[in-house]
Design a protein that fits this description.
heterotrimer; A alpha/beta (482); B alpha/beta (454); C alpha/beta (250); B: 454 residues; alpha/beta; globular; C: 250 residues; six-stranded mixed sheet; 8 helices
Chain lengths: 482, 454, 250
């Protein structure tokens, strides 16, 4: 029985990564290595105003004195930061008058990923910013959104077109001194998405960015900034994939969210970077700093993530609850298989009065992988009446993987109620037998049970993504069942 | 003086003191102890005291706790008073208690008792003289894998302490009580080492009470090694009751063999800076560990309980419950780690930490951790920080009980959850009484004792 | 004895009680009935001083004293007893310690000498017999691990111990089998005196077979919409609450 189960587990987890293709495309690529010169080149390729270059250089100076953090439950080989290409962009005309001007190869690439850039085939109700390597390719529905005063464009464009907003908010949530990877990102970030929702506007469609790493030996350093002005609402999704390569590639992104009075931001991620092969060769090193601030009263931020990809994931989407009556949520499903390693979780900083946060984390480990939840809930002295509830569950598939939980709870106010619960378990044989008895194969049973286990988080995703995420979960675990 | 200098001075002072006094330190203990002493001293010298950068000491500043003009006694010093005259412990049913005074076995009494059933109870130094082979077999053997410089420091300086040996099949009915008394006219640093060996099928309870006779500052860095043999049954209770100027550091190492059962309860009633390290290794199948802690802190007191339960064999079970009540500007820390090895299938491990905050100047830090490498396990942990249950408060007040009294009753109930895990009934009652007084803000003096512990 | 005038109360800004008027005289038993969500339990909680409810207007006097200005414990000491619908479990607080504290605090308030331990235990024994409560229960923590019926019996036992002027029994019959119901009702009847009063809140007529009320009120949508003699209970049993809802629909 055990052997049979092991076999099914390995069948379920041995699935091939289906986004592993590479697109032959002409690129504008600079030489490997990182220096002040490289920072200047990136800034000039982007035609950035002077203030941006100054900010980048400050960050670069600061970064040179920093050390890579080693506190996570991760084993990462030495990364040679001089052996990485910091800028590579598909060559295309700077100004696109219409979709027809996009390189057909590029269009085909995004089509294969299920992200049509062609407005006729566009995803209904979803506006997409497509980013390949260091550059944004195309943002759909831009004009329709502009009618409502919504700005949805690439970060490069925002730097040029909306410098006041950039000056005010870029780095306001994640300062350039924040941490090793975020600081590196400040110096060399190439593109990403920018969203501004004006006062009182409810964004009528899902906004989404699709990140694709294509070029070899390049690092991807995108930066996203979302500002929801008073009383506004936006739901934003990001997806990511990369080709299969034997060499690890670095991805160090920064996402900043600013929710002003009565505003709400919902941010969802389906992260499916190339995880490496089943022997642990290759894959993306994913070091991401995501942080939102509920800056003013009654603001709300919700993070939802489905993390199935990357060889190494180091990611803690966090929230600063600064305004009174603000609330934050973090919903996460992290799946690791083969030799993947994930150390992910969140930070909730309760500063204002009557703040609420909720954390639901579901870790699923299979193969030889290591999966950790790491989180901090901090209630400051003046944060009266703060509430937090955290539920962090781990599911182990097989006996060669690890599941770990590292919560930190710091409470300095007597009115706070902070609760954390965590469990670790495996799929019960009785559950599988029950399904078998109803005619469901063991493999399907595990799929069902895992999806049920992750349901609370998947339910938070916009519908278009929920179906995708569910499939992804099953695929990620193919070959792992037992 | 800058912090950096201050801190390096603390380490240098300890290293110098060891070097200067090593002749007299080495003189009183046999070679096998001195060999370990040198080994651990070298390790300590290389590592130094833990800093706050050390993840395990993130919330407790150990270096600052060591900063003080502590003196050390490298040999027993004569006492001017008869301890038995001033110090009474009237908890019924406890075995006539043994006493360590300033880390040395009380010299007016028989230092090593040999019971008719073969059990040996008394001074560790005396045991090394009378039973060198037995002590050598166990001494320092249960300090494993931890790499913690506080126990290294203890191993460098340790001389006397409690030795308990319970032979195969022997059941000691009455609990053994050790009074760890500090009687000083100056500020002392004391580093006793206790060794408790329970052989196969044996059973014993040990109660350790830390007390001070006068309000001088002291630093106690105590290590206790416990070996629970196959099918043995042990209970270790520690009651920490000193004063605001005390630094109390304990390192407890418990090794459990097949089907052994260990119940450990740490009650911290009063201390300035307290750090309790508990390391449990469940090394063979079906071992069962229960560990509990309760701390009551007020003023600027800082109480830190750190546990590490290592499931190294299948079918073992561990339960932990740690609770703190924090008043004024005190800080309570709990950090607990459960490690389940790949081989440790069918593990059941449970851990819970609960804290009550009474003011906005009090702080709690909680870090429950699970590290799991086996799939067929039932592991869970929980942490909750908050205030007294509002519904229960209303219920009590609806019956005419004042808010203050209702609050007191509920705090006592909160504490009782841990206290009732002590299986020695008279001790449980005594501690309930002390906790009650402590929660009312009265000094926790035991009934007829003349010692003012507050 | 009890006089409620135009009592309005809300929770989180949502009005629940919308102007209650009620007079209860010594020696009387009043029943308050009504469909779910009509505000019955809220009325009980507000009278006992539950702080989550905000009293927005009105007056409540017990023997001329303004209850609304008092803390929950002072109301209890004055003689208001609330038999909870869902008595809470309080692990670690023993029944004996709990009751002794309560009895003595109330005695202190009333200027009576405090009971010694032996007198207190004697009183407990007497009252236990009176309400037929299992001796074992009083040796445990407050309500901890009690069955639904045991919890309700324990409420009546506490009522016997505290000898209130005004007892408000909130759905004391819910979750009781017929034997437990009889015991609870007998307890209430035995404790009835010419100088105290009882308000029984219930959803069903069943309890009123055992505790015969002098007056029945129907509470609907935060107001008392009907007041009549005990025969009203039978009418409600027969016709349900729908006709009330229709008649007083908002």
């Amino acid at each position: 029985m055990e052997n049979e189960q092991d076999k099914i587990i390995s069948e379920v987890t041995d699935n091939e990564y289906k986004y592993g293709f590479f697109t032959e495309i002409e690129s504008d690529t600079i030489a490997k290595g990182l220096s002040e010169e490289v920072v200047k080149i990136i800034s000039s390729r982007k035609n950035e105003p002077e203030f941006m270059l100054e900010w980048r250089l400050k960050a670069f100076e600061y970064w040179k004195k920093m050390k890579m953090p080693n506190w996570a439950h991760l084993t990462i080989p030495e990364i040679d930061y001089q052996d990485i290409i910091y800028y590579s962009a598909p060559k295309q005309n700077a100004e696109l008058a219409s979709i027809d001007e996009i390189d057909p190869e590029l269009k085909a690439t995004f089509d294969r990923l299920g992200i049509p850039l062609d407005e006729q085939k566009k995803l209904s109700g979803v506006a997409v910013d497509a980013v390949m390597d260091s550059a944004s390719i195309k943002t759909t529905f831009k004009e329709n959104l502009a009618d409502l005063g919504i700005i949805f464009c690439s970060m490069s464009e925002a730097v040029r077109e909306h410098p006041d907003l950039i000056k005010k908010y870029l780095g306001s949530v994640v300062p350039y001194t924040d941490n090793f990877f975020a600081t590196l990102n400040c110096a060399v970030f190439s593109d990403g998405s920018f969203v501004y929702i004006p006062k009182g506007v409810r964004c009528p469609m899902e906004l989404s960015t699709y990140f694709r790493i294509n070029a070899e030996n390049t690092g991807q350093f995108e930066r996203t900034l979302i500002i929801a002005d008073e009383g506004s609402y936006v739901s934003y999704l990001e997806g990511c994939t990369a080709p299969k390569r034997d060499k690890n590639q670095l991805h160090a992104a920064v996402v900043e969210l600013v929710a002003l009075k009565n505003a709400e931001i919902k941010y969802s991620t389906v992260q499916n970077w190339y995880p490496g092969d089943k022997n642990g060769k290759g894959g993306i090193y994913n070091f991401v700093t995501k942080r939102g601030i509920c800056k003013e009263d009654n603001a709300k931020i919700s993070w939802t993530q489905v993390e199935t990809g990357s060889a190494v994931t180091w990611k803690y989407p966090s929230c600063i609850l600064k305004g009174d009556n603000t609330s934050a949520e973090f919903y996460s499903v992290a799946v690791t298989n083969n030799y993947q390693q994930a150390d992910t979780g969140t930070k909730m900083m309760h500063i204002g009065k009557n703040t609420k946060s909720r954390i639901v984390s579901k870790g699923i480990s299979a193969g030889q992988s290591q999966n950790s939840y790491r989180g901090l809930v901090k209630v400051l002295k003046n944060a009266e009446n703060a509430r937090n509830f955290s539920q962090c569950d781990s599911l182990l598939l097989g006996n060669n993987c690890g599941a770990h939980t590292f919560p930190y709870i710091e409470v300095d106010n007597k009115e706070a109620i902070v609760e954390h619960e965590a469990t670790t378990s495996r799929i019960g044989e009785d559950q599988i037998f029950y399904c078998n008895q109803r005619g469901i194969s063991t493999e399907d049973a595990i799929g069902l049970i895992v999806n049920g286990y992750a349901r609370e988080v998947l339910n938070q995703l916009p519908m278009e993504f929920a179906v995708e995420a569910q499939k992804l979960l099953q695929i990620s675990l193919e070959g792992s069942v037992g | 003086m800058s912090e950096v200098i201050k801190k390096s001075l603390v380490n240098d002072e300890l290293v110098d003191a060891f070097r200067k006094n090593n002749a007299v330190i080495f003189e009183q203990t046999p070679d096998f102890i001195n060999k370990l002493r040198s080994k651990y001293f070298n390790e300590f010298e290389a590592l130094g005291l833990p800093t706050k950068k050390n993840e395990a000491y993130k919330y407790t500043d150990i270096e600052s706790a060591f900063f003080g003009a502590y003196k050390r006694q490298y040999s027993p010093q004569p006492l001017t008073i008869d301890i038995r005259e001033v110090f009474t412990c009237d908890v019924p049913e406890l075995e006539n208690h043994l006493m360590l005074v300033n880390g040395w076995f009380y010299d007016k009494e028989n230092k090593l008792k040999l019971l008719p059933n073969g059990a040996i109870i008394g001074s560790l130094i005396e045991a090394t003289k009378q039973f060198p082979e037995l002590v050598e077999k166990h001494y320092g053997k249960y300090i494993t894998e931890q790499n913690d410089s506080l126990s290294m420091l203890n191993m460098s300086f340790a001389q006397d302490g409690l030795f308990v040996y319970v032979p195969k099949g022997v059941i000691i009915e009455k609990p053994i009580q050790l009074i760890n008394l500090i009687v000083a006219t100056e500020e002392l640093m004391i580093q006793p080492h206790n060794l408790i060996i329970a052989e196969e099928d044996s059973s014993v309870s040990v109660v350790i009470c830390d007390h001070s006779l006068n309000p001088h500052a002291f630093l106690l860095n105590s290590t206790t090694e416990v070996m629970a043999g196959k099918n043995s049954k042990l209970e270790i209770c520690r009651q920490q009751n000193a004063h605001d100027h005390s630094v109390q550091l304990t390192n407890t190492f418990i090794l459990q063999k097949e089907s052994s059962f260990v119940n450990s309860v740490y009650i911290t009633l009063h201390g300035g800076t307290v750090r309790n390290n508990l390391y449990v290794k469940l090394s063979e199948p079906h071992a069962h560990n229960k560990s509990y802690g309760l701390w009551l802190a007020d003023k600027n007191q800082h109480i830190d309980n750190n546990t590490f339960i290592h499931h190294a064999a299948p079918n073992c079970e561990s339960n932990q419950l740690y609770k703190g009540i924090l008043d004024n500007a005190s800080t309570g820390v709990f950090s607990g780690r459960i490690l389940v090895d790949r081989l440790a299938q069918k593990t059941i491990a449970f851990q819970s930490n609960k804290n009550l905050l009474m003011t906005n100047d009090a702080k709690t830090r909680s870090k429950p951790q699970l590290e799991i490498y086996a799939d067929d396990v039932k592991c869970s942990h929980g942490s909750a920080t908050g205030q007294l249950d509002e519904d229960a408060m209303f219920y009590l007040r609806q019956r005419g009980i004042s808010k203050k009294e209702a609050c007191h009753l509920l705090m006592l109930a909160f504490a009782d959850d841990v206290i009732n895990k002590i299986s020695i009934a008279p001790l449980r009652d005594e501690i309930t009484g002390l906790v009650e007084k402590r929660l009312r803000g009265e000094l926790s003096r035991c009934n007829r004792c003349k010692v003012n512990c507050g | 004895m009890l006089s409620i005038k135009n009592l309005k109360a809300s929770i989180n800004g949502k009005p629940i009680l919308k102007g209650i008027n009620l007079e209860v005289k010594p020696g009387e038993v009043h029943a308050i009935m009504g469909p779910n969500g009509s505000g019955k339990s809220t009325l009980a909680s507000v009278l006992a001083g539950r702080e989550i409810f905000e009293v927005t207007s009105g007056e409540v006097l017990l023997e001329g004293k303004n209850l609304l200005e008092m803390s929950p414990e002072d109301r209890a000491r004055l003689g208001v007893f609330l038999g909870f619908q869902y008595p809470i479990e309080i692990p670690g607080v023993s029944m004996v310690n709990f009751m002794k504290t309560a009895v003595n605090e109330i005695r202190k308030y009333r200027g009576l000498p405090l009971l010694s331990s032996s007198d207190f235990l004697k009183l407990m024994r007497e009252k236990k017999e009176l309400v037929e409560i299992d001796s074992q229960l009083t040796n445990r923590s407050v309500n901890e691990g009690f069955s639904g019926g045991e919890k309700k019996k324990n409420e009546i036992f506490q009522m016997a111990m505290l000898e209130p002027k005004l007892a408000i029994l909130d759905e004391t019959d819910s979750g009781l089998d017929i034997d437990a119901l009889r015991i609870v009702a007998n307890g209430v009847n035995k404790l009835k005196r010419p100088d105290n009063a009882t308000i029984v809140i219930t959803h069903y007529q069943r309890l009123l077979d055992y505790i015969v009320p002098d007056v029945i009120h129907v509470l609907y949508n935060g107001q008392i919409v009907k007041t009549a003699g005990k025969e009203l209970a039978l009418e409600l049993e027969e016709k349900g609450y729908d006709w009330i809802k229709k008649e007083y629909a908002v």
